[in-house]
Amino acid sequence: MPDKHLSTQFDSELSAVSNRVMELGGLVESQIHQAIYALSQFSIEVADQVIAIEARVNNMEVDIDRELSSIIARRQPTARDLRLLIAISKTTANLERVGDEAEKIARMVCSIIQSGSPRSLPALELRIAADLASGLLRKALDAFARLDTAAALVILKEDDLFDLEFNGFVRKLITYMMEDPRMISPSLDLLFLAKALERIGDHAKNIAEFIIYVVKGADIRHSSMEQIESVLK
Q1: How far lies 131's CA from each of 142, 156, 165, 212, in Å?
Q2: If pLDDT is split at 50, 70 and 90, which confidence band does 2 have?
Q3: CA-CA 20 to 30 A from 130: which of 138, 159, 167, 220?
Q4: Would the pTM count as exceeding 0.70?
Q5: What domains are defined for the chain?
């Protein structure tokens, strides 16, 4: 009975910290959407809100890590439980970095607005990329909550498609710059924004990799898709 009691407590603690991670994920998702909305509406007020949220994101990361350290010290988990706690810590760190990217976007939006840059650049494509990036992040968090390796594999493949979209956007910006030198500066601003979105996609991919690490005990970072599929068989 005592063992069962301790196990129940441990499960409760895991559930509580996992819920905090999902809450953090929702917060950084909202940062992404607000940052892109600030660009589409040329709103410094909304951009400032994104920047202000970053302090809350940072505090949540610290709180979650503190709780994880406490759980590890008190419970001394092994095997899959330890892998799960490590993956939660790494996922939290990746979510904090997503918040950093959203903050960068918001700060660049403020810079673009204040410089009076032309509004004729392809911001629509950037919003599409933002939807793809936030969609990947949402799927990664949903898959992490279920420890769904099949969904994780789909996310890894979708990130490759997202990278193709990013490369297409870069080519379009290069065309703008070649056709009109006046577009060079604002195009470089949008390139900075697109790169931030690409990094958000990379963080979603990292979270998907952690799922496979927890379930299969295999570190599949830097592995080919064929190698990853082999691990999941």
Answers
A1: 16, 17, 12, 25
A2: very low
A3: 220
A4: yes
A5: 2-232 (1.20.58.220)
